[in-house]
Amino acid sequence: MHNILQNLQNLNFSLYESKAYLALLQRGEVTGYELAKNSGIPASKIYQVLNKLIAKEVVLAIDSEPLRYAPIPPDAVLARLKDDYMHNLNHLTGTLSQIYNKEFHSDHYIWNISGRDSILSRVTNFIKIAQRNIHLSVWDEEVSEIEEALIQADQRKVKLTVVHYGRKKLGIGREFQHGREHRIREERGARRIALEADEEWVILGHFLEDGNSHAVWTSNKGLVLLAKDYIIHDIYTIRFAERFGDDANDIFEKY
pTM of the prediction? Predict the structure, then answer.
């Protein structure tokens, strides 16, 4: 229930509005007094909350004595909210780009991200907007969550180069198995992700074994190209190891 309340608040409902709507969905037609009692909302606030929900077109006031309230079915509410969101998003997609003046903005900013979900969301967004090429270094635990976005990028003819830390293979683009992931996990106590897209964006993430995760992303050209070179260098070492086997591994073990 807590997650549902949070989701509704993310859609611009207040906590009391969220509680009132959920209580109405469970109870059906009720008076304001009954709703206050069932939802835990103070009686002094309930009619103010109901009037806001009526204005948002998620609650109906039924002409009766006493006045009763009923929820509009959630499918209808969510469909309208989705239509409104997409209408605004489509309008802003064109207009904001026209307003944005790149001459007054710098690419040197470095942005921090915390939390695994937020990091993978940003990675997915970069994959979705890439048009030419992607270089990616990723572990099995994370690649499954961005797999669909990578497949769609491949279908858009984006050139994909992926270094896998693990056994997962996507069957798209150029893929390389690192092969030393167990040793690296022991040494670092963490997994990493590196994504470079179109030589315009880079995100570097760090997933700790205790669940904490953090990352940075930037469009700073020097850091973008450095990350690309890092991934390409990994590919060189992988191919070197494939060619020379144990001799190559003996060299790597020294570092």
Answer: 0.64
